[in-house]
Amino acid sequence: MKPGIHPPYRPVVFRDKAAGFAFLTRSTAVGEKTSDGRTVEWEDGVTYPVIDVEISSASHPFYTGTARVLDTAGRVERFERRYGRGGERG
């Protein structure tokens, strides 16, 4: 790799405040994401920069198993019962 052109790759804590979940990983995220100086002391006693995220695997419906399946057939049937078929009024 060409020296001096890549951002620093360092440990960063990503925190999902909605789920109360955080994980330590490595990232090149710098600048506006971590420039406000927010840090957190991790379980190993070391202080790392922290990035707050709105959603993670701990709160995303797909990963938590709370994803809803749309019942489009049921919606069509309910519409037809309510308004009739083929524009009939009833």
Automatic annotation (TrEMBL):
Q: What keywords are assigned to this protein?
A: Ribonucleoprotein, Ribosomal protein
Which PROSITE patterns does this entry report, sorted A to Z? RIBOSOMAL_L31
The keyword Ribonucleoprotein is assigned to this record: yes
A Pfam family matched in the record: Ribosomal_L31
Q: Name one GO molecular function term.
A: structural constituent of ribosome
Biological processes annotated in GO: translation
Kindly state one GO CC term assigned in the UniProt record: ribosome
Please name the InterPro entries in this protein's record.
Ribosomal_bL28/bL31-like_sf, Ribosomal_bL31, Ribosomal_bL31_B, Ribosomal_bL31_sf
Q: Per its UniProt record, what SUPFAM superfamilies does this chain match?
A: L28p-like
Per UniProt, subunit arrangement is: Part of the 50S ribosomal subunit.
Family to which this protein belongs: Belongs to the bacterial ribosomal protein bL31 family. Type B subfamily.
Q: What is this protein called?
A: Large ribosomal subunit protein bL31B
Gene encoding it?
Answer: rpmE2-2
